[in-house]
TrEMBL record:
Organism: Flavobacterium phragmitis
The protein's name in its UniProt record: Calcineurin-like phosphoesterase
Domain Pyrrolo-quinoline quinone repeat: 337-518
Domain Calcineurin-like phosphoesterase residue range list: 30-207
A molecular function (GO) term: hydrolase activity
InterPro entries according to UniProt: Calcineurin-like_PHP, GpdQ_catalytic, Metallo-depent_PP-like, PQQ_b-propeller_rpt, PQQ_rpt_dom, Quinoprotein_ADH-like_sf, WD40/YVTN_repeat-like_dom_sf
One Pfam assignment: PQQ_2
Leader sequence segment: 1-23
Keyword terms, alphabetized: Signal
Keyword Signal appears in the UniProt entry: yes
Length: 613
C-alpha cells in the first residue's frame, strides 16, 4: 500500500514537472546566446575554444546568438576570416558588431571587416522585442569609445520607423558600456530614452556584471576566457514575461543563473553637462577623423562616410562635395590648387580645389590613413604597403619603396636629404628623400610587439638627432645619420602625443597623467637621462588620465594640447603656464592646423571643426 502511494506521488510529480516544462516552452520565452570578447588569433587557445562553444550552441535549443565585439586581438585580416569561418558553423542566426580590437588597429582600416561581416549594425524583431546593435569604435587610433554621429542618427531613425504602430520593447547591444567610457554616451542615451528601452548588453570588461547606466539596465557579458584565464564560458539569456535572466555557461557544464533585470522599460535620467562648449565653425553630418586643409578662401575636410567637402570660409556655404564610398582618415593637403587625399582603398587622388574634379589617381595599394608632408610640389606619404613620393601637380610617381609591413599615421620628418616615417610594423624607416632608398631602420629590439610601434607619432628632429615616443611609454633619441640609439628613458609616461616648438629648441610631450613635458632639443647637450631631466620642465594640464595621440602645436608663443574629452589646453610657451582651457565637445581632438592667415584650427571626432584663435 505504501509503495502504491509512493508511485502515485512520483507519477503526479512527473506530470507536474512535465507540464511546467511544456508551459515554459510555450510561454513565449526568448532564449539567445551572447558571445563577447573572443580575442581570437589564428591558432591561439581562444580559436579552439570558440570552435567548441559553437559546437555546444549547436546542440542546444537557443534561438540565435549576438556577438558584441572584440572578435579578434588586432583586427588582422586573418583573424577576422578565422572568426567568420567559425561563426559560420552556427546552425542558428547570429548578429555581429565590432569592438575596439577590430576598429583601433585594423590593417585594412575596417574594409576587411565590412567585406566579411557586412554593415557594422543590426536590427531585427523577435517576440515582443526589437533587437538593435551598433559599434562604438574607437577608429584607427587610441581613444575612448565613440558612437559615430551617423550611427546615432541611424539609431534614432531606425527605432522611430521600427516602433511605429508597435508595442515592442527595445534591447540594445554595443561593445562598450554606455557610461563615460563612451565619449558621447549621453547622446546615445538621449536617443534610447525616447523609446521603450529595457536594457543594453555590452562586453569590453571581460566580466559578467549587472550595471545601471543612468537608469538603463546594463548587462556586461563575460569574455570567453576570464581575466585570470581559468574560466572558459559564455552568456545565456532567457527573456520571460517579467524578467531577463542571465546565465554563465561554462563548457560542458550546465548554465548557472547569475542575475536578472526587469523586462519593463527603464527610466533613463541623463546627467546634465555643467560646462559651456564653444560652437563649431562647421558641424558635419558625420564624424571626422582628419585635419582640415586651407587655401585663402576655402576650407577642405573629409569625413567618416567618405565625403570630401570644400567650404567657403566667409559664408560657410559648401562649394562642392565628392563621395569616395568609405571612411577617410587621411588628412588632406593642398599643393598649388591641388587637393590631395588618400583612401583606405589604397588610392592617392588629386582634385582641383576650385571645381572638385578629379585630376589624377595613383594606385598605391594598401590603406592610406596618415598625414602627408609636402616639399617643392612633392608629396611624401605612406600606405600600408609602400612609401611614395609623387608630383602633386601632375600625379606622377617619382619613387616608391615597398618596405612597410603596415600603415603609417604620423606626419613624416624631413631633415636634409632624409625622410623618416614611423610604421605600425614596429619599425622607424629613414629613406633618401630623393631616391626612396633605405638608409636605416630601427625598432626596440622586438619586432613582434607591433602595438609598441611609433605608427601614430609626429616625431621631431634637430640636425643630428631624432626624438620620438611610443605606446611603450619610452622617449627615444636616435642619431639621425645612422639610426643608432643615443638614449631611451621611461622617466615620463608619454604614449604618442608630442610636438616641437616653433624655434626648434624644445620637444613637447603629453604624458598619460595629463602633464605637459618640455625637453631640450640640443645637439650640443650630452645625452644622459640625468641631463635631460635636469633641463626639462613639467606642467600639470589638469586633464587626469590621457591617451589622445593628437600632435602638439605651438603658434605665436602659444602651445595647443588636445585631450580625449574634447578639451584644448592653451599654454604660454615662454612662461610655461596655462592660459586657458577651451571646451569644444565630448570626443577626442584630432589635432591642430594653421590656415593661411596664421589662425589655429582643430577638429573633433564628433564632426566639429573649430576656429580657436
Amino acid at each position: 500500500m505504501i509503495m502504491k502511494h509512493v508511485v502515485t506521488r512520483i507519477l503526479l510529480l512527473f506530470i507536474m514537472v512535465s507540464g511546467f516544462s511544456q508551459n515554459a516552452e510555450n510561454s513565449g520565452n526568448i532564449k539567445f546566446v551572447q558571445l563577447t570578447d573572443l580575442h581570437v588569433s589564428v591558432g591561439n587557445d581562444n580559436d579552439f575554444l570558440l570552435q567548441n562553444i559553437v559546437k555546444e550552441i549547436n546542440n542546444s535549443d537557443f534561438e540565435f546568438a549576438v556577438v558584441t565585439g572584440d572578435l579578434t586581438n588586432r583586427g588582422a585580416d586573418d583573424e577576422l576570416k578565422q572568426v567568420h569561418s567559425i561563426l559560420s558553423q552556427l546552425k542558428i542566426p547570429y548578429y555581429v558588431i565590432s569592438g575596439n580590437h577590430e576598429t583601433n588597429w585594423s590593417e585594412s582600416a575596417g574594409l576587411t571587416y565590412k567585406k566579411i561581416f557586412g554593415e557594422d549594425r543590426f536590427v531585427f524583431s523577435k517576440g515582443d522585442y526589437l533587437f538593435i546593435g551598433f559599434p562604438c569604435g574607437p577608429y584607427m587610433k587610441m581613444g575612448d569609445g565613440f558612437v559615430k554621429h551617423e550611427d546615432v542618427l541611424w539609431l534614432d531613425k531606425t527605432l522611430k520607423e521600427s516602433l511605429k504602430n508597435s508595442n515592442k520593447k527595445v534591447l540594445n547591444f554595443a561593445h562598450y558600456p554606455l557610461d563615460n567610457s563612451v565619449s558621447n554616451y549621453k547622446e546615445v542615451l538621449s536617443v534610447l530614452e525616447k523609446y521603450p528601452t529595457v536594457a543594453t548588453f555590452c562586453g569590453h570588461g571581460h566580466t559578467l556584471r549587472k550595471y545601471d547606466f543612468s537608469g538603463l539596465s546594463g548587462i556586461m557579458g563575460t569574455s570567453i576566457t576570464s581575466l585570470d584565464g581559468k574560466t572558459k564560458s559564455y552568456n545565456q539569456v532567457i527573456i520571460s514575461k517579467d524578467s531577463i535572466s542571465i546565465y554563465q555557461k561554462e563548457i560542458d557544464k550546465p548554465g548557472v543563473f547569475k542575475f536578472s533585470v526587469p523586462s519593463k522599460p527603464s527610466k533613463i535620467t541623463i546627467p546634465k553637462d555643467s560646462v559651456t562648449m564653444q560652437s563649431p565653425f562647421i558641424k558635419d553630418i558625420a564624424s571626422i577623423y582628419s585635419l582640415p586643409a586651407f587655401d585663402k578662401k576655402n576650407l577642405y575636410f573629409t569625413n567618416s562616410i567618405g565625403e570630401i567637402k570644400s567650404v567657403n570660409l566667409k559664408n560657410k556655404n559648401v562649394n562642392w562635395k565628392t563621395e569616395t564610398g568609405n571612411s577617410i582618415y587621411f588628412s588632406p593637403i593642398i599643393i598649388k590648387s591641388n587637393l590631395v587625399v588618400g583612401t583606405i582603398e589604397g588610392n592617392m587622388v588629386g582634385y582641383d580645389t576650385q571645381s572638385g574634379k578629379q585630376k589624377w589617381t595613383i594606385p598605391v595599394g594598401g590603406v592610406l590613413v596618415g598625414s602627408p608632408i609636402a616639399e617643392n610640389n612633392k608629396i611624401y606619404t605612406a600606405s600600408s604597403k609602400a612609401f611614395i613620393c609623387a608630383d602633386a601637380v601632375t600625379g606622377k610617381v617619382i619613387w616608391q619603396n615597398n618596405l612597410p609591413a603596415s600603415y603609417s599615421q604620423g606626419v613624416p620628418v624631413i631633415q636634409g636629404n632624409k625622410i623618416i616615417f614611423g610604421v605600425w610594423d614596429s619599425y622607424i624607416y629613414c629613406l633618401d628623400k630623393n631616391t626612396g632608398n633605405l638608409i636605416w631602420k630601427w625598432n626596440n629590439g622586438n619586432d613582434q610587439q607591433i602595438l609598441y610601434s611609433a605608427g601614430n607619432v609626429n616625431m621631431v628632429s634637430s640636425k643630428n638627432r631624432l626624438y620620438f615616443v611610443t605606446p611603450q611609454r619610452f622617449l627615444t633619441v636616435l642619431d639621425i645619420e645612422t639610426g643608432k640609439t643615443l638614449l631611451r628613458t621611461s622617466k615620463w609616461k608619454i604614449r604618442e602625443s608630442m610636438g616641437k616648438s616653433q624655434d626648434g629648441k624644445w620637444m613637447y610631450g603629453k604624458t598619460m597623467d595629463g602633464l605637459l613635458l618640455r625637453v631640450p632639443i640640443n645637439d650640443e647637450m650630452e645625452l644622459t637621462e640625468e641631463n635631460m631631466i635636469a633641463q626639462s620642465k613639467v606642467l600639470d594640464l589638469k586633464l587626469g588620465y590621457e591617451h589622445n595621440p593628437a600632435g602638439i602645436l605651438e603658434n605665436k608663443n602659444k602651445i595647443y594640447v588636445g585631450s580625449r574629452k574634447g578639451e584644448v589646453i592653451v599654454v604660454d610657451a615662454a612662461k610655461f603656464e596655462i592660459i586657458k582651457q577651451i571646451n569644444l565637445g565630448s570626443s577626442s581632438v584630432n589635432g591642430f592646423t594653421i590656415d593661411d592667415k596664421g589662425q589655429v584650427w582643430a577638429s573633433l571626432i564628433e564632426g566639429g571643426i573649430f576656429l580657436l584663435e
